[in-house]
UniProtKB/TrEMBL annotation:
Residues 264-311 are annotated as: Disordered. Keywords: Signal, TPR repeat. This is Uncharacterized protein. InterPro entries: TPR-like_helical_dom_sf, TPR_rpt, UCP035836.
Amino acid sequence: MSRAKTSLAALAVVLSACATSPDPAEQVEQDYAQAVEAAMQPATPEEVAAANRADPLTKANFWAKEHAKDPDNLDKALSFASALRGIGSDERAIEVLSQVLVVHPGDPDLLIALGKALSTQNDIVASARAFEQATRTAPDRAEGWAALGTSLDKLDRHEDAQRAYTQALLLEPTRTSTLTNYGLSLALSGNLIAAEEKLRLAAAQPDADVRVTENLALILGLQGKYDEMAEISSRHAPQGVVEQNAKLLQDMIQPVRSWEALEAEAPAAKRSAPPVEKTKPTPATPPVATNAEDSAPEASSTGLRLRRSGE
């Protein structure tokens, strides 16, 4: 081969090599695009399961990233809001749910989750409004009716609340939390006999907890059924506490003692003329707690609390 031909062949090899070599700037852009695409891929089922088993803060951070990848995704928004509530960030949860509700208007899961977050923030009117809307869009969901009843009770609209509980129980007759809250609503309305009936049904359910039996025991005591109250309470409390509770309740609801009875017990030297008007009997009312999920305290030494079940 001549020298000229050799030179041309070498030049062709050099040019070919230059043509196939990637441009450094273009390679950086490609790598960046691939990294972004990889980062935007949804988490695998294994990653989701691991995050849901993690501590609340780790779980919230995980779902924050997943929500950022697809802000309009309904399931991710619900998971993110739930994780936010798990770390006490209800305000941020309300913000997330409200934004996604624009994309999915009327979704009952969103409305129920929003109502619960609003209730925790003590915005009961807005909470009831969210639950009411959920019952309109999904009238076959017992959860929505039951949650609406709880909010209405907090607004002292007990008759409306009881209608909501009735509707919930038509859909799920053995829902323990609904039976319990219905019973408490009836008690707040002064109907202790009907309250006892609902609480007995609640206590008979397999998932009934100590709050249900405590409520039933208290309603029985308010009706003067102290032996039965003590029998039910003794399943979860020491006998000394049970006896103390029964005695306290008797003292609270018995009529105020008359002047004659007090005078008969007083030393003769300390007796004085009775007042013109006698004290009228005034039964005392035991303290009533609000929703146990929000603020009901643990039982004190008296143990006398009405404890609402969380919906």
